[in-house]
Write a structure and sequence with these properties.
alpha+beta; Immunoglobulin-like; 3-stranded antiparallel β-sheet; 2 helices; elongated
C-alpha cells in the first residue's frame, strides 16, 4: 500500500481552497526598488552639497593677551553671501572657563574673506581666544 504524505496533500489542496498564489512580476519589483534607491541617492547628494558649504564660516586668525583685563582677537570670516554677519568670540582662562565674550557685527560686504580685530574685556587673565559661531543676519 502506498504511503500518503499529509503535507503533500495539504499543499495540493491549497490552490483549490484559496486560489493560485499571486506573484508580483519580478521586473516590476526591480523597477520599484531601483526608483526608490535612485531617489534616495539623489536626496542624499542634494543634502550633502547644500549643507557642505555654509553661507558664513570663520576662525581665530590671531589673539594677543594684552593685560589681565583685555585680550585682542583677530578673526577671519569667509562668506558666500553679501549680507551682514554676526560673530561670537570669547576668551578662556587656563581652567577653560569663559572670562570674557563679545559679539562682533560685520556690515554687508561682497562675498569673500574679511579680517577684523576686536578687544574682549576679561574678568581675569585669558590664555586663549575662540570663535563660537558666525551667522548671517
Amino acid at each position: 500500500m502506498p504511503r500518503r504524505d499529509p503535507a503533500a496533500a495539504a499543499r495540493a489542496a491549497m490552490p483549490e481552497r484559496y486560489g493560485p498564489p499571486r506573484r508580483f512580476p519580478r521586473s516590476v519589483l526591480v523597477a520599484v526598488v531601483a526608483a526608490v534607491a535612485t531617489a534616495g541617492l539623489g536626496w542624499l547628494l542634494w543634502a550633502a552639497t547644500v549643507n557642505a558649504t555654509p553661507d558664513v564660516a570663520g576662525g581665530v586668525a590671531d589673539y594677543r593677551v594684552v593685560s589681565e583685563a583685555r585680550t585682542d582677537v583677530t578673526i577671519e570670516v569667509r562668506r558666500r553671501v553679501s549680507d551682514p554677519v554676526s560673530c561670537e568670540v570669547y576668551a578662556q582662562a587656563a581652567d577653560t572657563s569663559v572670562v570674557g565674550e563679545r559679539s562682533v557685527a560685520l556690515a554687508a560686504d561682497a562675498p569673500g574673506t574679511t579680517t577684523t580685530t576686536v578687544s574682549i574685556a576679561t574678568i581675569r587673565r585669558a590664555v586663549t581666544a575662540r570663535l563660537r559661531s558666525c551667522t548671517v543676519e
